[in-house]
Design a protein that fits this description.
alpha/beta, Barwin-like endoglucanases, six-stranded mixed barrel, 2 helices
């Protein structure tokens, strides 16, 4: 009589494992633009925070201050200084990243009220901007 053999466990193929990791990494990056590199830029829509967020903590732990020149960006490091230029008027402002966002598709930066006022965008709400690294500390 023949002895029954225990089924052997198959190990995953190394190539298959690498493919899964590559696809997972691609999925994480999809739709998330990288922070502008020094000398580089990104263009898209900017919005600004509602005054209702005044005093609430940002992702960096700092409370939101509508009078400070700050912004939310998806990937730029906290403390990085970004120059945001309104494309229609050419007005620009340098802001410091202290939050993550914006959380709406198509937008690349959320500005504090003070920064939005410097750009003259508070009545329009959304404007097309260019975002680039600013020279100086953290930038």
């Amino acid at each position: 009589m023949r002895a029954l053999r225990q089924p052997t466990r198959r190990r995953p193929l190394p190539l298959l494992s690498l493919m899964v990791l590559a696809l997972a990494g691609t999925a994480c990056l999809h739709g998330r633009p990288a922070a502008p590199a020094p000398g580089g830029f990104e263009e898209g829509l900017a919005s600004f925070y509602s005054d209702a967020f005044q005093g609430r903590p940002t992702a960096s732990g700092q409370p939101y201050d509508r009078g400070a020149l700050t912004c939310a960006h998806r990937t730029a490091p906290f403390g990085a200084r970004l120059r945001v230029t309104e494309l229609e008027t050419g007005r620009s402002v340098v802001v410091t990243v202290n939050d993550r966002g914006p959380h709406r598709a198509g937008r690349i930066v959320d500005l504090s009220r003070a920064a939005a006022e410097r750009l003259g965008m508070t009545r329009r709400g959304l404007v097309r901007v260019r975002v680039e690294r600013a020279a100086g500390p953290g930038g």
